[in-house]
User: Which sequence fits this backbone?
């Protein structure tokens, strides 16, 4: 028996809304069907629906791992003051297509 998991949660923290979603495929994760965990944020004010990616984790098996972290500016300011103006960290093994939520084949990366 195989079980696929989809999880979505919405949290309001201060003046921001955070959407967390997780997708675990029924089979072993592959480059075409990876395990995905996303967290996005947007201001809680009406009319402002600009969403920003806070955390993305995708695992498509051996050789296919993608982690991107970009904390919201209000959290950066609260932690470090006005010194850090922006922070974005990406660690990847394999090339991840954020729009398709899949990894590109190894041949496409090399060629």
Assistant:
């Amino acid at each position: 028996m195989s079980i696929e998991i989809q999880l979505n949660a919405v949290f309001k923290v201060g003046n921001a809304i955070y959407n967390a979603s997780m997708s675990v495929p029924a089979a072993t994760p592959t480059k075409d069907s990876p395990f995905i965990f996303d967290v996005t944020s947007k201001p809680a004010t009406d009319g402002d629906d600009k969403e920003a990616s806070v955390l993305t984790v995708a695992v498509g098996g051996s050789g296919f791992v993608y982690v991107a972290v970009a904390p919201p500016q209000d959290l950066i300011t609260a932690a470090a003051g006005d010194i850090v103006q922006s922070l974005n960290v990406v660690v990847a093994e394999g090339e991840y297509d954020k729009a398709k939520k899949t990894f590109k084949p190894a041949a496409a990366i090399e060629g």
About this structure: The CA atoms of residues 4 and 26 lie 4 Å apart.
